[in-house]
Amino acid sequence: MTGLVAAERGVGETVLVDALPEFVVVAFAAVTHLADPWFLFALLAVGYWFAGDGVAGSPRRAGATAIAAVTCAYAATALGKAWFAVPRPPGAMPPADVPTWLPALLSGWYEAQVLSDGFGFPSGHATGGAAAYLALALLYDRFWTDRARYLAAGAVAVAVAASRVIIEVHYLVDVLAGLAVGAGTVAVALWLAGDPRVRRSTGADASAGPTAELDPAPAFALAAVVSTGALAVAVAGGHTGEVVEAGIGIATGAGGALGWRLVDGAEPSVPARVAVPALAVTGGLWIGAYALAGTLPVTLVATTAAVIVVVALPSLPGRVGPALGGLRGA
Question: Which residue intervals define the domain Phosphatidic acid phosphatase type 2/haloperoxidase in the entry (predicted)?
Answer without folding.
Answer: 65-190
